[in-house]
Specification:
Low-confidence stretches: none
Oligomer: single chain
Strand content: 15-25%
Strand order of the largest sheet: 2-1-3-4-5
Order of helices and strands: EHHEHEHEEH
Radius of gyration: 14 Å
Number of domains: 1
CATH topology: Rossmann fold
Shape: globular
Bound molecules: 1,3,4-trihydroxy-5-OXO-cyclohexanecarboxylic acid
Length: about 140
């Protein structure tokens, strides 16, 4: 059984009620169900959310130590957290896949969302496709 870490940053615990016009009305329980249902055989989904930058960084260390691919929605940390970027960089430098995902398309929103400090060290970026951003990332990181 291989495990994919699906890490979600600040305020994503409020999905379902947070700005449904932007993020839809489904929540993280629904996201986990979607990913478990679409995972390839033998793939387990470890979906987590935190509002705490340090916790998110420690989970990235765990990905390195346990050699797990990562699907990362850094949420607002995307736009300014060099600490998160450095930790995410450890993942890809270790030869592991890390896909940055966003539910909305940050480039179609406020100017401060147009910058990602994470994208340059990510394996790839999928944005603007709702929960399908995660589903497509899962398909990629578990492709045979
Ligand atoms: C987000 C986009 C970010 O700009 C925002 O801060 C989020 C969610 C997204 O999934 O669309 O919290 O990462």
């Amino acid at each position: 059984m291989s495990t994919v870490l699906v890490l979600n940053g600040p305020n994503l615990g409020r999905l379902g009620s947070r700005e449904p016009d932007v993020y839809g009305s489904a929540n993280l329980v629904d996201l986990r169900e979607l990913l478990v249902a679409s995972a390839r055989e033998g793939v387990s989904i470890d979906l987590r959310q935190t509002d705490d930058e340090a916790e998110l960084i420690h989970w990235l260390y765990e990905a390195v130590d346990e050699r797990m691919p990562v699907i990362l929605n850094p949420a607002a940390f995307t736009h300014y957290s060099y600490a998160l970027r450095d930790a995410a960089s450890l993942v890809t430098k270790a030869g592991l896949l890390l896909i940055e995902v966003h539910i909305s398309n940050p480039h179609a929103r406020e100017t401060f969302r147009h910058t990602s400090v994470v994208s340059a060290i990510a394996t790839g970026v999928i944005a603007g496709l709702g929960f399908d951003s995660y589903r497509l990332a899962l398909d990629f990181v578990t492709a045979p």
